[in-house]
Design goal:
It is a single chain. By secondary structure, the protein is α/β, with parallel strands linked by helices. It folds into 4 domains: 105 residues, Nucleotidyltransferase, domain 5 (2-Layer Sandwich); 140 residues, Rossmann fold (3-Layer(aba) Sandwich); 104 residues, no CATH class; 38 residues. The chain is built from 13 helices and 10 strands. It has a 10-stranded mixed beta sheet with strand order 5-4-1-2-3-8-7-6-9-10, with helices on both faces. The protein is globular and about 65 Å long. The N and C termini lie far apart (65 Å).
Length: 407
């Protein structure tokens, strides 16, 4: 008999907000529960479908190779898109995922969105703040949405047992959102109790499951794109291939910012003291909810602002020095692309040439960059070799070759 995970959902009001729960029986027969507790200025109502539960449990079910059965209503279109998403992830990560079947008590048709009201997934970082700015300041043309709130999740990068850190982080985020006229909604969830899954591969499932729960009060959701279109690395959790498969036309989750590099995003905040004082990009060392100013991401973001012509940013502390940049290790090709963006931005490094040269050194010494250069050189080397063969064996003996090919 095939392994199967069976889930059901509940939605209840609490003293300070609302709480949704996904109760499920695992493939081993054990019972588990994932919770989402919403509080703040803009709350969801019970969603019309259980799409959020299917997306929340999908990576776990694929990892253990168990079919997923959801009690209640699920969008037929969402199930079709999940099937396509599975094809991609099983191909990219056969070591992690297996394709499964999904069943629902009732499959329903999607209804087109009534308007462009949306909620924004808001971490307080550069990408999310750019998505906020782009929607509120009309940078997206016909893609612009009417944002109703920013949604910050406790339990993803900041553990549930560190409310002190999250409290400070949410305070910083609330200041930025307030400057754009939006309230902050906080979500506490234990989704990461689903163990043994690489966070940077599966986090988009977790975040999408949160956003789907607003489908009863808005027509769509917005998540910030992590990478520019020309810097994507397939297999990262957020990508332009599988991101659209996390939602459907009845409740689209739109990803904002793929047409911008991280440095060009930083540039729009020149002269914006609220953003420059309250951004939170640091997640590896959130000592007190502020940026540590020393980790790789803090140093890289400082360099984005220098390349953007802004220079020192209050929320990140002092400018990096050459030794700090020399100490950066580029440990994957996605991060390499982010440093290449800093060099290729065409920014004014006046007064910071030493820092630019340090960035160039760590990029060109990276094993990923060396591999890229070798691959780039291969066609040229092959062309030169074929040219030598042509000159030596074909030009000098044309009659022999004509006879051989039947000419």
């Amino acid at each position: 008999m095939a392994k199967e995970i069976i889930c059901q959902t509940a939605f209840d009001e609490t003293s300070n907000g609302v709480r949704s729960t996904i109760k499920f029986r695992g493939h081993t027969g054990e019972h588990f529960a994932l919770f989402y507790e919403f509080s703040g200025g803009f709350l969801p109502s019970a969603p019309p479908t259980n799409d959020f539960a299917v997306i929340a449990l999908l990576p776990h079910a694929m990892k253990v190779g168990a079919d997923l059965r959801c009690e209640g209503r699920v969008s037929r279109e969402q199930l079709a898109r999940i099937e396509e998403a599975q094809d991609a992830w099983v191909m990219w990560r056969p070591d992690l995922f297996r394709k499964i079947s999904i069943f629902a008590d009732e499959e329903v048709d999607s209804v087109p969105p009534a308007n462009r009201d949306a909620v924004l997934a808001y971490s307080g970082g550069l990408d999310a703040t750019f998505a906020l700015h782009a929607h509120c300041k009309g940078l997206l043309g016909r893609r612009q949405n009417n944002l109703r709130a920013g949604v910050m999740v406790h339990g993803f990068d900041v553990p549930l047992d560190r409310p002190d850190i999250f409290g400070k982080s949410s305070e910083l985020g609330a200041k930025i959102l307030e400057s754009y006229g939006l309230p902050l909604t906080i979500v506490r969830t234990n989704w990461r109790d689903l163990r043994d899954m690489p966070w940077y591969t599966v986090y988009i499932f977790a975040l999408s499951s949160v956003m789907h729960q607003f489908s009863g009060v808005v027509s769509r959701a917005v998540i910030a794109a992590d990478e520019a279109y020309d810097g994507e690395y397939l297999g990262c959790g957020s990508n332009s291939i599988t991101n659209p498969l996390m939602s459907h036309f009845g409740f689209p989750i739109e990803f904002a910012g793929s047409g911008y590099t991280r440095t060009s995003k930083a540039k729009v905040f020149s002269g914006n003291p609220v953003v420059l004082s309250n951004l939170r990009v640091c997640f590896q060392s959130p000592i007190d909810g502020h940026n540590c100013g020393r980790c790789e991401k803090c140093i890289r973001t400082k360099l984005n602002f220098i390349a953007a012509g802004i220079g020192r940013v209050p929320c990140l502390g002092n400018l990096p020095n050459r030794s700090e940049i020399d100490g950066v290790t580029i440990d994957n090709p996605a991060v390499l692309n982010l440093y290449r963006d800093i060099l290729d931005s065409g920014g004014d490094w006046a007064g910071h040439e030493e820092l630019r040269d340090a960035v160039r050194r760590i990029v060109f010494s990276s094993k990923w960059e060396r591999s890229r250069r070798r691959l780039a050189e291969t066609p040229a080397k092959l062309s030169r070799r074929l040219t030598r063969i042509y000159r030596k064996h074909i030009l000098r003996k044309p009659d022999l070759w004509r006879n051989w090919i039947g000419g």
